[in-house]
Amino acid sequence: MKGFAKPLDDLINEFAKFPGIGRRSAERFALHILQIDKGTACSLADAIRRIKETIRFCATCNNFSEQETCHICGDPLRDSKTICVVEDPKDVGRIEKLGIYKGVYHVLLGKISPLEGVGPEALSVNKLLIRLRKVKANEIILAVGSSTDGETTALFIGKLLRPLNIKITRIACGIPVGSSLEYTDSATLIRSLEDRKPLTFKS
Question: Which residues of 133-146 are buried (b: 16+ CB within 10 A; e: fewer)?
Fold first, then answer.
């Protein structure tokens, strides 16, 4: 027997679909929304609607953007010849919060994962190659995670870009093996960026 009215139970079920949110947390969220005033609840609903209607991927780098080009790619003060390659748009935000990186980004929208059936064709690697034909980059920073899939992705991109004679670096291994940027503290991430090393290949 259900303990909640159907509309409330439906909302709980929707929250429970969020990553890392269990039934108990979903119930707390739903009950909180039920208890707040209607105006606040409607503001939340409007905010959700707006991001679904207005947020898109930047045509240049795949970062989240309200316009065709994101605010980073459109900033003339950024170093457009230094490109930091990351897995996900949230990684852009993570690095930007550090306040030390002045280049631009390229978001792969994933990583190579053979066990999950994700190959290189699923990533925006071709888009990066097209971009590099238009911009003479001085450095490509591979800032993907240090998991097995992250290392596979970094090596694949590095080998692909090697003939272009561009400096290719990998963020330093201050990031624990198997972790992602999302769970890395700021001090470690700063050190990883500053201590990045040239990507090496086995002969």
Answer: eeeebebbbbbbbb
